[in-house]
Structure formats: C-alpha cells, structure tokens
Write a structure and sequence with these properties.
alpha+beta, Jelly Rolls, 15 strands, PEP-CTERM protein-sorting domain-containing protein, single chain, signal, eight-stranded antiparallel β-sheet, seven-stranded antiparallel β-sheet
Length: 312
C-alpha cells in the first residue's frame, strides 16, 4: 500500500494519461440485443429469477435523455435496463459479460450509467428498498455472479449506504483509505461536489420532484471508466460536459487479463414499493487499447512508486 503522497503522485499522472480520446477501440456495444451476452446471477435472482435484464430498452419512455457517448448511427435512447430484487425480499444481483471476449495488456473499459429510484421514498420516507448498486470492471472470469476477479467498481444510485462507492481487487473490498477521498461515502465532498443532487425527470411525475442525493449517479448520466496499466488500475468518472474525477488508484494485486463484466445488484433485503421507478441503465460499452506512449509513461510511474515504496 502506498503513502498518501505516493498515491497522489500516481493519481495525477494516471488522470492525465487515461484519456478516452487517445484510445483505439477493441470492442463496443450499444446494448441493443441480448445476443452475445452471458448472465451470472446470485441470491434470489439466481434461485427464483428475481431480476430483469431488458436489452434495447427505450429509456425515453421514462423521460430520460440520450446517453452522452452515443455515436452517429446508434439507436437513440436505447440501452439495457437492469432490475434486481423485484419481489424476493433477499439480496440479489447479477453480472453481464460479452461472450467470447478476452482482453489483455493495457486497456480501458468505459460505459454510460444512469440510476433511477423513487426519490420521494428515499428523501421523505424511510428509504427502504431504494438503494441498489451498479458498476463493473475488467479482468472478469466469466463465472462470478457477485464481485470476483479483476478490478471492479460499483456505486449506489441514491446515496443510501455508508459505502456508496465500492472498489474491489480480485474480490477484496478495498479500505476507505485507498480512495482519493479517503472515504467511500457519497456525502464526502470529493463525490458530492462532482455529482450534485439532481431531480428526477419531470415526466416521471414523482411527488413534488424532490432534489436527488448528491454524491451518487442518481437521475444523471455518468460515464464509468476503468483503466488497467502495468499493474495499476484507475477508476475515473466523467460527466457529459467532459469533467472528470478519479475515484481510486488500485495498486493492490488484481487480475487484468480476461473479460469485462457489468454489475447490478440490490444488496439489501428490502423491496421498493415503486419497482417501476427503481432500475439502472447502461449504454455505450467500449473497450479500448491504451496507446504505448501512455503505457510507457505509466510503467515509469509504476517503477518510481516501487522505488519510493522501499524508502517509506
């Protein structure tokens, strides 16, 4: 584990180097069809099929705007809709993965995320049932239903957990001190200043359209980015206006070679009273190679970190 100074140094260089514009695409999918996708489910989702995955879902029906990274020729306002713990009353979830895919070397995963929930229940009620998690990562083994191999990041959509941001290295839940914020709670200014609370789309007719919870990707598109570069993984968030913020630099051991996985879960037993309002969306999944000049820079940083570690 690095000192805060070393982690800050690595973070600065990695944030500058890991830019989406410089990457060459290895795989892309606009989530229009279930063809070419596998599923691994856990909890009530596995035992009772207590989940739903709807590819090619037209989210404009929920008055949600088009995802920020849709390309010309994509099906507008169409992605995959994700739901868990619909009625089972037990923790459940699943991982999606593209079949027949494997990636190695220095590469990057990006995907657009939207989280929806009953804002009135979360803010004015007991918030039982509104807290669900969305995310994904690299180095996936095509087998784990819950968090397993690779570098993974998941987040709540409604700020309803003491650990709204959760990063993993080969299944190890990383300590709060590993994060840039030194904290996993979305209320921390590192998250809340970057992701202010947003009201649900007016067309959803949620009661009084209360403002959302800051620090989580509720009612707004956020691009999740997971990079792997010579043994270091950075997790970066990007807003539609291009603003970026690093969540964590993972320098614990993790599997980098393998597939990608997209994760959705309700890790609590409570069931929302408004399942029609409680779901996640993922669109525009892209895996890209990180160019060699960037990889070389990161290798130099990794060497510098290794040398400095011996002196602290």
């Amino acid at each position: 584990m690095t000192s805060n100074f070393l982690k800050g140094f690595a973070l600065l260089v990695l944030a500058l180097a890991a830019t989406p514009a410089s990457a060459a695409a290895l795989y892309s999918n606009e989530m229009a069809s279930a063809s070419g996708w596998g599923f691994n489910a856990f909890g009530s989702a596995a035992s009772a099929g207590d989940y739903a995955v709807t590819f090619g879902y037209d989210y404009s029906a929920d008055f949600i705007p088009e995802a920020p990274n849709s390309q010309v020729g994509d099906t507008a306002t169409s992605g995959v809709k994700l739901e868990a713990n619909l009625a089972g009353g037990a923790a459940s979830g699943f991982t999606l993965y593209p079949t027949g895919q494997s990636f190695s070397g220095n590469y990057q995963l990006r995907f657009d995320v939207w989280m929806n929930y009953d804002a009135d229940e979360r803010i004015n009620g007991g918030s039982a049932g509104t807290t669900e998690f969305i995310g994904g990562g690299i180095g996936y083994d095509n087998a784990s239903a819950d968090i397993g191999a690779g570098a993974q990041i998941i987040a709540t959509g409604d700020g309803g957990s003491g650990s709204d941001w959760r990063a993993f290295a080969d299944g190890t839940f990383l300590a709060a001190t590993e994060y840039v914020a030194g904290d996993r709670n979305g209320f921390n200014p590192h998250y809340s200043n970057f992701l202010p609370g947003v009201s649900p789309p007016a067309g959803q007719f949620q009661v009084d359209d209360p403002a959302g919870v800051a620090g989580s990707p509720g009612f707004q598109w956020v691009t999740f980015e997971v990079n792997t570069n010579n043994g270091l993984s950075t997790v970066v968030l990007e807003k539609p206006n291009g603003d970026r913020r690093t969540v964590i630099v993972i320098d614990e051991p993790y599997t980098s070679d393998g597939n990608i996985g997209l994760y959705y879960a309700d890790l609590f037993s409570s069931v929302t009273s408004r399942p029609d309002l409680t779901f996640g969306l993922i669109d525009n999944v892209v895996v890209s190679a990180i160019p060699e000049p960037t990889a070389g820079l990161l290798l130099a940083v990794a060497g510098c970190l290794a040398g400095l570690r011996r002196r602290v």
